[in-house]
Here is the input.
Amino acid sequence: MVKAQQEAAEKELEREEEERRRKREEAKRRKRMLEAAFDGDLDEMQSILNEVSQLDDKNGIPKDEIGMIARRCHQMAVVECQDANENTPLSEAGGGGSVDAIVFLVERGGNPNSIGAWGRTPLYRAAFGGHMEAVECLLQFGADPRTYAHDGNTPA
Here is the structure.
C-alpha cells in the first residue's frame, strides 16, 4: 500500500513538473511573439505559429471540424497574447511601426482596437511613434481613431 502511494505521489509530481514546463514554454513563446511583432520579424512570428501547430499535432488534436476549432483557438491565443501591460502583438507592431507585422497579425485575427497599457490602442502607439504608414494601415483595417487613452488623448 505504501509503495502504491509513493508511485501515485511520484506520478503527481511528474504531472505537476510537466505542467510547469508547459507554462514556461508558453510564456517564452508569448514573449518571443511580442518582441518579433515590435521588430517586424515575420519569419519569427510564423515560426512561433508553426510551433503551436506542431504542438497540436504532438498532442493529437484532430484535423476534423472540432479539432480545427481547437487549433484555431491555440493560434489565436498567441496572436492575441498580452504582456504584463496588456499590450498585444498588434499593439507592439504598431509601436514598432511595422506595416508587414500589422498585416500579418490582422490577417490571423489580431484586433486593431485592442486596448493595452494606459488605454492605448495599436493606432495610438503607431501615431505616438510617428509611424504614418502603420497608422494608415491600421485605419484601413478598422482601427478606431476616436478611442481615448487614459491620458485623455486620441491617436489624432
About this structure: The chain has a mean pLDDT of 95. The CA atoms of residues 13 and 111 lie 39 Å apart. The helical segments are 2-39, 42-58, 65-79, 89-96, 99-107, 122-128, 132-140. The first helix runs from residue 2 to 39.
